Amino acid sequence: MHITIIGVGKLKEKYLLQGIEEYKKRLSAYAKVQLIEVPDEKAPENLSEAEMEQVKRKEGERILTQIKQDDYVIALAIEGKMWSSEDLAKEMDNLATYGKSNVAFVIGGSLGLSKEVYARANELLSFSKMTFPHQLMRLILLEQVYRAFKIMKGEPYHK
After folding, report:
1. DSSP secondary structure string, 70-112?
2. Any known ligand binding at 125?
3. For 34, 118, 121, 153, which has the most beta carbons within 10 A of its beta carbon?
4. pTM for the whole thing?
5. How does pLDDT run across 51-84, given as a tens digit for each residue?
6. Residue 131 is assigned to a ligand binding site
């Protein structure tokens, strides 16, 4: 399975980079994992609704250029479906079984995702009704994907 995680913005925090590298290493036994960072759109603090949409649209265009035609796209969105770790494992197992071996997870910027990215997504996934920093979500997502593979393989997960 090929897993791509497309995120808006460049990660700089050393502790997040270390955690991401650890889970990428662990996942390498199960899947090919690629993280793609697309530049975030610089914007002032107080934006109008129209300006926010414009920022999301520009970031969305950058995201869409990184998605391949045969990718099964799971966009992280607060209004998406909430899955348990077991649900994610089952979904990924089903995707692999039915020939959808290229999975792209999309994490938007601080304003979220554009309508165009939502339209391209095959699935909207919510991790919580809470809002998480988009940089931290990369690490959380990698951990959950790793956990999903451990569940699929029936292997123990050390808590």
Report:
1. TPEEEEEEEEEEE--HHHHHHHHHHHHHTT--EEEEEE-BTTB
2. no
3. 121
4. 0.94
5. 999 999 999 999 999 999 999 999 999 899 999 9
6. yes
